[in-house]
What does this fold into?
Amino acid sequence: MPRTIVVNPPGRLPLPSPRELWEAREVLWAFGVRDLRLRYRQTALGVVWVVLQPLLSAGIFSVVFGRIADLPSDGVPYFVFSFAGMLCWTLFSGIVTRAAPSLVNNQALVSKVFFPRVLVPLSSVISVAVDVLVAGSIMVVMLAVTGIWPGWPLLLLPLWIVLVTLLAAGVGLAASALMVSYRDIQYVVPFALQTLLYASPLAYSLSAVDPSIRWLFDLNPLTWLLEGFRWSLLGLAQPAPWQIAAAVVTCVGAFVAGLLVFSKMERGFADVI
It folds into this structure.
């Protein structure tokens, strides 16, 4: 018996239907796998780039901030300190960078084929998660070699990964929807990420920040997430309780806000793109 699909008008909060998203889960997987294949196709080093990029970045940060600027790393080898931050940053920036142009890059499918279009930017989570998983294996080796054991905070690492993913996905959803109508977003996103890279305690410790401007860093959600990552991975100081609570509220709120922006603008995608 043929199945009947009833299309209802959106309500006040036009969030995507969980049932519809679940039924189209294969589309999500297909987009994620395709992104991985396209990214490393016809490259000499292939998946080695996944490890090479954060390693090189951590190495540069160690030389510039650790040796030349002589900034503290809270008693942890500077390279390990930087690499732990790079894992968090790679997850965040990777999702935002790949999600933002995803609708424009797939405009033929978006304009001609019906499926939950929110799956296009969300599929970037799959490909970036693979990158972080591979780079994370190097982190495990570093911890073993240096003898660093964070203890029970390691159990909270999945929480920080989920929070970073939610924050990045929310930003990526909003950016992808806005880029359909405003192509300026393709220039805004790289600039904003570059600014955040240096405005967040990624390559340096918060202890190196002047107390007069410390409040600026305390207002940055990435500060809370980076500190949480290093707490769980390196056993450094625990973030303040208010920062943990604020991180949960902010990241979940950013994801919901991104969904709302995307859903509000989705009806006009086929006409504008």
